[in-house]
C-alpha cells in the first residue's frame, strides 16, 4: 500500500510540470469529445460546437478552463511571460436589452472556482476573498450590468480585474474603426463578437481589442500598463467564467485560441459555429458503440458504486439540536414515501426557494406539500430551523399552515398543508384562464390582508413576510387566499457569508428603499401588498418586460390612468365589466397608496384591513400625488436601468411544471419572472 501511495504522490507531483508542455491552444469551435476542457456550473459544450458558459437561467455561474495549467512565468527570473488570446463570443440576453451579468476571460491559480458567487461576482470571487493578493486572479471582464458596489462605469464595459471585481482599468465596449473613430458595440446585443487580449511582458502592457468581425482593429479599446509577474504563479489555468443574476443572459464562446510567448493563431468568425436559433428539435444521435466486456465490467462497478453512494446518502444523520426543536420533525423516509421518492410527477412547482412536491402521508392520508430547499451552510441552517419552529407556531386561517420539517444533509424539507387550488398567479395569468370573478378576488385580497396583519401585529413578535406576491398567495379548496412562504426569505438573508446581508424579495413588489437600506420592515410588506392589489384588479404582473414602455411598470401605468381620470381602463378586461365599481376603485386607490415611494406615507396593514372592510373611507385626494409626481420624471428606461444596472441578484426565475393531469392543482409555487436578491456589504 505504502509504495503505491508514494508512487501516486510522486506522480501527482510530477504531473503539473509534465502536462505544462502545452504552450498553445486552438479551438475553432469545440467538440463534445474535448476532454481537455474542464467544465463546471452550468457550462457545457453543445453538440453544435458552442461552449455555453451559462444559459439564460437566473443566478447561475459556469466555468470552462483548459484542463492543464500553463507555465506563465519563468521560475528562475520570476518574470511573467507574454501571452496572446483570441476568442469569439456572444451574449444573448433573456429579454431584449435585459440580461446579465457578463463573463470574463480568466487566468487563475485554480480551475475550481465553485466557491465563487454568481451575479456581479461573475463567478470569479466571493465576498470573502475579494481583493486578496493571494487570489492570483487576472480577468478581463465583459460586463453587461453596472454594479455601483464595484464602481462600474456603465452596463456595457470591458474591464481588467486583478484579484478584484473593481476593475483596475475599464472602457465602454467598442472598437476603433480607424485611428480616431470609436464605434460603440453592445456586448449583449446577441451578435458574435471577436476579442483579442495581448500581454507584452517586456513593455508590461495588456491590450484588449474587440470587433464585430474578424478583422482586427489596429488600436485596442483598452490598454493598461501592468506587470503581471507578481500576480501570476508559475502555473496558472486559463479559461472563462460567466454568471447570471436577477437578469440572465446566455454566454457563449464560439472559438478560442491562446498562446504563451507568441501570437495566438487567428480565428475566422465565418468558420466558427453559428448561434443556436430558437429551440430546435434534437436529431437522433447515431452512436456506434462496441460493447466490450470491459465496458460491462465498468458499468457493473459503476452501478455498485452508485448503489453504495446512494445508501450512504440516504442514511439520515440527526444532530442533537434537531431533537430539541418543535414543531414536528418528520423522518426523511416518511416524506420520501409520501412523495413517491420525490417523483417528478409529484412536482408542483419550482421556485426561488426550491422545489415543491405534492405528497400524501401514508398513515394519516393527509395531503401535504413538501418544499425542498438546499442550503449552502449547515450553520445558517440551524439558525433557520429554529426560526421555522417559531414560525410553525403561527396559526391563522389566511396563512398556509406549516406542519413540520426535516433536514437531511444540506437539504431542508418543509411540510405544509396542501392547497387544493394552487397559487393565485395561476388564476391571474395562466392560459387558458380560469377567471376568478370580482367577489372571489375581493375575498382573496381581504384574506391576504388579514393574514399579513396577523404576521405584523398578531403574534408575540413582528414577522415580516418579505416576499408578498401573487405566487405566494395560495388558494384552499374554498378559494380563501392564504399566504405562504412567510419567513422563508430569512434563510436567504442569512447568506453563507457572514457580514453580508441580502435583500430578498421580488422585482415589482420590492419597496424602493429596500435595496438602499437593506432593511425589511412592515412598510415594505405593505408596498408589496399594494403591488398585489393592483395585480389582482388589473390582471397584470407588476412588471411586464414585454409590454410597451408606458405599460411595463404596472404602478406607473395605473397612476397615469388615475391622473387622466380613466382608472377603470386599467381593470382586468377578463372581468368583462362585471364588478362593483366602488370596490374596484377603492382597491386601485389603495394599491397606489400602499405603493407610495415614501415608507411613511404607506398605511399600516391595520388601516388597510379597515379600508377593505369598509370601516374607513379612503381619502378622496390621494396624498400620494406629490410623491408620484416626483417620480414621474423617471422614464421606463431609467427605471429599468435603476434595477438592471445595479447589482440585483435573482433568487431564480421559476417555471411551472405541468404534470400532465388535467385539473391537477398546485400547492405552493413561486413563479415570479424576476426574483430579487441583492447582496449588500
Ligand atoms: C483537446 O482534445 C482534443 C480531443 O481530445 C484534441 O483533438 C485536441 O488536440 C486537444 N487540444 C489541445 C489544445 O490539447
Ligand atoms: C440551462 O441549463 C440547465 C443545466 O444544463 C438546464 O437544467 C436548464 O433547463 C437550462 N435552462 C434553459 C432556459 O435553457
Ligand atoms: C528564464 O530566465 C532565465 C534568467 O533570466 C533565462 O536564462 C532563461 O532563458 C529564461 N527561461 C525562459 C524559458 O525564458
Ligand atoms: C487572504 O487569503 C489568505 C489565504 O486564503 C488568508 O490567509 C488571508 O487571511 C486573506 N487575507 C485577507 C486580508 O482576507
Ligand atoms: C488593481 O486593483 C486592486 C483592487 O482595486 C488593487 O488592490 C491593485 O493594487 C490594483 N493593481 C494594479 C496593478 O493596479
Ligand atoms: C457610445 O457610447 C457612449 C457612452 O458609452 C455615448 O456617450 C456615445 O454617444 C455613444 N456613441 C454612439 C455613436 O452611439
Ligand atoms: C498595445 O497597444 C498599443 C497601442 O495602443 C501598441 O503600441 C502596443 O504595441 C500594443 N501591445 C500589444 C502587446 O499588443
Ligand atoms: C469589419 O468591420 C469594420 C467596421 O465595421 C469594417 O470597416 C470592415 O470592413 C469589416 N471587415 C470585414 C472583413 O467585414
Ligand atoms: C389635493 O392634494 C393636492 C396636493 O396635495 C392639493 O394641492 C389639492 O388642493 C388637494 N385637493 C383637494 C380637493 O383637497
Ligand atoms: C376555481 C377552481 O378551480 N376551484 C376549485 C378549487 O378546489 C376545489 C376542491 O378541489 C374544486 O372543487 C374547485 O373546482
TrEMBL record:
Enzyme class: transferase
UniProt KW keywords: ATP-binding, Cell membrane, Glycoprotein, Kinase, Lectin, Membrane, Nucleotide-binding, Receptor, Serine/threonine-protein kinase, Signal, Transferase, Transmembrane, Transmembrane helix
Leader peptide range in chain numbering: 1-20
Record membrane topology: Single-pass type I membrane protein
Keyword Isomerase: no
Family: In the C-terminal section; belongs to the protein kinase superfamily. Ser/Thr protein kinase family.
Keyword Membrane: yes
Annotated catalysed reactions: L-seryl-[protein] + ATP = O-phospho-L-seryl-[protein] + ADP + H(+); L-threonyl-[protein] + ATP = O-phospho-L-threonyl-[protein] + ADP + H(+)
Binding site for ATP: 371
Enzyme Commission code: 2.7.11.1
Record's GO cellular component terms: plasma membrane
Compartments (UniProt record): Cell membrane; Membrane
UniProt domain Protein kinase: residue ranges: 342-618
Name of the featured protein: non-specific serine/threonine protein kinase
InterPro entries membership: ConA-like_dom_sf, Kinase-like_dom_sf, L-type_Lectin-RKs, Legume_lectin_dom, Prot_kinase_dom, Protein_kinase_ATP_BS, Ser/Thr_kinase_AS
UniProt GO BP: defense response to bacterium; defense response to oomycetes
Organism superkingdom: Eukaryota
GO molecular function term, any single one: protein serine/threonine kinase activity
Membrane-crossing segments per the record: 235-254, 284-309
Annotated source species: Rubroshorea leprosula
Amino acid at each position: 500500500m505504502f509504495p503505491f501511495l508514494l508512487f501516486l504522490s510522486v506522480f501527482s507531483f510530477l504531473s503539473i510540470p509534465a502536462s505544462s508542455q502545452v504552450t498553445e491552444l486552438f479551438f475553432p469551435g469545440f467538440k463534445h469529445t474535448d476532454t481537455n476542457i474542464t467544465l463546471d456550473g452550468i457550462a457545457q459544450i453543445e453538440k453544435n460546437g458552442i461552449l455555453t458558459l451559462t444559459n439564460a437561467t437566473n443566478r447561475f455561474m459556469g466555468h470552462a478552463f483548459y484542463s492543464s495549467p500553463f507555465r506563465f512565468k519563468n521560475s528562475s527570473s520570476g518574470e511573467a511571460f507574454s501571452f496572446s488570446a483570441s476568442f469569439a463570443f456572444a451574449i444573448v440576453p433573456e429579454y431584449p436589452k435585459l440580461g446579465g451579468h457578463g463573463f470574463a476571460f480568466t487566468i487563475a491559480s485554480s480551475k475550481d472556482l465553485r466557491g465563487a458567487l454568481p451575479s456581479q461576482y461573475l463567478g470569479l470571487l466571493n465576498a470573502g476573498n475579494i481583493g486578496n493578493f493571494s487570489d492570483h486572479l487576472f480577468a478581463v471582464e465583459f460586463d453587461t450590468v453596472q454594479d455601483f458596489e464595484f464602481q462600474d462605469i456603465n452596463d456595457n464595459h470591458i474591464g481588467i480585474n486583478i484579484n478584484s471585481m473593481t476593475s483596475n482599468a475599464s472602457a465602454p465596449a467598442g472598437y476603433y474603426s480607424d485611428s480616431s473613430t470609436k464605434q460603440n458595440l453592445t456586448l449583449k446585443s446577441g451578435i458574435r463578437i471577436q476579442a483579442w487580449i495581448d500581454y507584452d511582458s517586456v513593455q508590461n502592457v495588456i491590450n484588449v481589442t474587440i470587433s464585430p468581425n474578424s478583422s482586427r482593429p489596429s488600436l485596442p479599446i483598452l490598454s493598461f500598463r501592468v506587470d503581471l509577474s507578481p500576480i501570476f504563479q508559475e502555473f496558472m489555468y486559463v479559461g472563462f467564467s460567466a454568471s447570471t443574476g436577477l437578469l440572465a443572459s446566455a454566454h457563449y464562446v464560439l472559438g478560442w485560441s491562446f498562446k504563451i510567448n507568441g501570437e495566438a493563431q487567428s480565428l475566422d468568425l465565418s468558420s466558427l459555429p453559428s448561434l443556436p436559433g430558437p429551440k430546435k428539435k434534437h436529431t437522433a444521435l447515431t452512436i456506434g458503440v462496441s460493447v466490450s466486456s470491459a465496458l460491462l465490467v465498468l458499468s457493473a462497478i459503476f452501478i455498485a458504486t452508485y448503489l453504495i453512494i446512494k445508501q450512504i446518502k440516504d442514511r439520515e444523520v440527526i444532530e442533537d439540536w434537531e431533537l430539541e426543536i418543535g414543531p414536528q420533525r418528520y423522518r426523511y423516509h416518511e416524506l420520501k414515501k409520501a412523495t413517491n421518492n420525490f417523483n417528478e410527477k409529484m412536482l408542483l412547482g419550482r421556485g426561488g426557494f426550491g422545489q415543491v412536491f405534492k405528497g400524501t402521508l401514508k398513515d394519516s392520508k393527509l395531503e401535504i406539500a413538501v418544499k425542498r430547499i438546499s442550503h449552502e451552510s449547515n450553520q445558517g441552517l440551524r439558525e433557520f430551523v429554529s426560526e421555522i419552529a417559531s414560525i410553525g407556531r403561527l396559526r391563522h386561517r389566511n396563512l398556509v399552515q406549516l406542519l413540520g420539517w426535516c433536514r437531511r444533509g444540506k437539504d431542508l424539507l418543509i411540510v405544509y398543508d396542501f392547497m387544493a387550488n394552487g397559487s393565485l398567479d395561476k388564476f391571474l395569468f395562466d392560459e387558458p384562464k380560469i377567471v376568478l370573478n370580482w367577489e372571489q378576488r375581493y375575498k382573496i385580497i381581504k384574506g391576504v390582508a388579514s393574514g399579513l396583519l396577523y404576521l405584523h401585529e398578531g403574534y408575540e413578535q413582528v414577522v415580516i413576510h418579505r416576499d408578498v406576491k401573487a405566487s405566494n398567495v395560495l388558494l384552499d379548496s374554498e378559494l380563501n387566499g392564504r399566504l405562504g412562504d412567510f419567513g422563508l426569505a430569512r434563510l436567504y438573508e442569512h447568506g453563507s457569508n457572514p457580514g453580508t446581508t441580502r435583500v430578498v424579495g421580488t422585482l415589482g413588489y420590492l419597496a424602493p428603499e429596500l435595496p438602499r437600506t437593506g432593511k425589511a420592515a412592515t412598510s415594505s410588506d405593505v408596498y408589496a401588498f399594494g403591488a398585489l392589489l393592483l395585480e389582482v384588479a388589473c390582471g397584470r404582473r407588476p412588471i411586464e418586460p414585454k409590454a410597451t414602455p408606458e405599460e411595463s411598470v404596472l404602478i406607473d401605468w395605473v397612476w397615469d390612468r388615475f391622473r387622466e381620470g380613466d382608472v377603470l381602463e386599467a381593470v382586468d378586461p377578463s372581468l368583462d365589466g362585471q364588478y362593483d365599481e366602488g370596490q374596484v376603485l377603492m382597491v386601485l386607490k389603495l394599491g397606489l397608496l400602499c405603493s407610495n415611494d415614501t415608507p411613511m406615507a404607506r398605511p399600516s396593514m391595520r388601516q388597510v384591513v379597515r379600508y377593505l372592510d369598509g370601516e374607513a373611507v379612503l381619502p378622496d385626494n390621494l396624498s400620494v400625488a406629490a410623491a408620484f409626481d416626483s417620480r414621474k420624471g423617471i422614464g421606463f428606461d431609467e427605471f429599468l436601468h435603476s434595477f438592471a444596472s445595479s447589482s440585483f441578484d435573482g433568487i431564480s426565475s421559476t417555471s411551472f411544471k405541468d404534470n400532465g393531469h388535467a385539473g391537477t392543482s398546485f400547492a405552493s409555487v413561486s413563479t415570479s419572472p424576476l426574483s430579487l436578491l441583492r447582496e449588500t456589504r
